């Protein structure tokens, strides 16, 4: 475990230092920067930090899965016009790596996974968790490379991300730096209230086992003492094989009544097939806000939506 964490540290340092993705010599502009944010939950946090100054643009507006995503021409154009880009990092949005490398020198690109105070978890392995493929240190991390990229689902991480965004924005747009900082502080207070609310709400489903569609919830589970026991797919863009389906079925039968959660961007058919003939129930989790309109409230709606779905399914009668 120790060696693994050390390896993780080295890899994270490698991301923070990827030179092609971090434009060094971008001079601050007088105008407010054109900010493009990769995914809706991060965009929501950025919208809060930029409130009253400008609207950031979200790159992936929803619909498909982030994993195995390919940028549309209109999205690539939006990215090419950006002054400042916020993303989790190559561990999550692999589809942005090449377009961002092409942007080098034109935009400042900030990876949220490398922000001070963001706690990063290794990918889960073994049992019903996918085995991460690891790269040599120095290579950029990609999905499944041993680091879990769903960092925003820890409200503490969200608070650190908001601070990092305010800092990056203020460096770019000094005339509004104070405003960004104040907004970030207001967002952090809101996140802290959300955290307390979720903690109270989720206390009653602590330790109740459930199965998730893909391994996106580790940060949320760690924050609130939840007990996901496995995921259905090894990778969200690949259908599980017969062997894995049998393994998940065995797990569901062995644990007794559990909830098996689908996600809006994936077919629920596989979930229905898995629970047929068992006492398991189903629910829906939307970790990326694919069903919610973008904006500063989306982050809070995503988190409350997860909590509501978990409580509804895990406390339902037989
Ligand atoms: Zn995911």
Task: Set out the fold topology.
Blueprint: H1 2-16, E1 35-37, H2 40-49, E2 57-58, H3 73-80, E3 84-87, H4 97-103, E4 108-111, H5 155-172, H6 177-202, E5 209-212, H7 218-224, E6 227-231, H8 242-255, E7 259-262, H9 269-275, E8 281-284, H10 298-314
Parallel strand pairs: 1-2, 1-3, 3-4, 5-6, 5-7, 7-8
The chain binds zinc ion.
Task: Describe the 3D structure.
The chain has 318 residues and is an alpha/beta fold. It has two domains: 2-197, 3-Layer(aba) Sandwich (Rossmann fold), CATH 3.40.50.1980; 204-314, 3-Layer(aba) Sandwich (Rossmann fold), CATH 3.40.50.1980. It is built from ten helices and eight strands. Helix 4 (97-103) links the parallel strand 3 (84-87) and strand 4. The longest helix is centred in the middle third of the chain and has 26 residues, at 177-202. The radius of gyration is 20 Å and the shape is globular. The protein starts with a helix and ends with a helix. The model is unreliable at 1-7, 16-29 and 131-142 (pLDDT under 50).
Q: Which value, in Å, is the CA radius of gyration? A: 20 Å
Oligomer state of the chains in this structure: single chain
Strand line-up across the major sheet: 2-1-3-4
- Structural domain tally: 2
Task: List its salient traits.
Rossmann fold; alpha/beta; 318 residues; 8 strands; 4-stranded parallel β-sheet; 10 helices; disordered N terminus; 9% strand; single chain; 41% helix; binds zinc ion; 2 domains
Question: In a few lines, what is going on in this structure?
Answer:
It is built from 10 helices and 8 strands. It is α/β, with parallel strands linked by helices. α2 links the parallel β1 (35-37) and β2.
């Amino acid at each position: 475990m120790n060696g693994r964490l050390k390896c993780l540290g080295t890899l994270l340092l490698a991301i923070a230092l990827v030179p092609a993705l971090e434009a060094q010599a971008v001079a601050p502009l007088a105008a407010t920067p054109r900010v493009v944010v990769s995914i809706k939950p991060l965009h929501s946090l950025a919208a809060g930090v930029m409130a009253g100054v400008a609207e950031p643009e979200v790159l992936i507006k929803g619909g498909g899965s982030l994993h195995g995503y390919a940028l549309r021409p209109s999205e690539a154009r939006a990215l090419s016009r950006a002054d400042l880009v916020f993303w989790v990092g190559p561990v999550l949005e692999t589809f942005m790596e090449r377009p961002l490398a092409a942007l080098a020198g034109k935009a400042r690109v900030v990876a949220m996974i490398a922000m001070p105070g963001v706690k990063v978890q290794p990918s889960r392995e073994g049992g019903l968790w996918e085995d991460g493929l690891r790269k040599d240190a120095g290579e950029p991390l990609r999905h499944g490379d041993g680091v879990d990229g769903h960092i925003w689902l820890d409200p503490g991480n969200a608070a650190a991300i908001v601070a990092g965004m305010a800092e990056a924005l203020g460096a770019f747009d000094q005339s509004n730096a104070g405003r960004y900082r104040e907004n970030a502080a207001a967002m952090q207070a809101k996140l802290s209230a959300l955290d307390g609310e979720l903690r109270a709400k989720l206390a009653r489903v602590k330790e109740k086992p459930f199965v998730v569609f893909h391994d996106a919830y580790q940060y949320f589970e760690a924050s609130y003492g939840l007990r996901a026991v496995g995921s259905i797919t090894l990778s969200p863009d690949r259908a599980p094989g017969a062997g894995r389906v049998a393994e998940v079925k065995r797990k569901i039968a062995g644990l007794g009544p559990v909830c098996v959660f689908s996600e809006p961007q994936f077919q629920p058919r596989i979930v229905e097939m898995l629970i047929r003939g068992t006492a398991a129930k189903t629910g829906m989790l939307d970790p990326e806000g694919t069903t919610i309109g973008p904006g500063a409230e989306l982050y809070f709606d995503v988190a409350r939506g997860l909590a509501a779905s978990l409580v509804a399914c895990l406390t339902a009668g037989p």
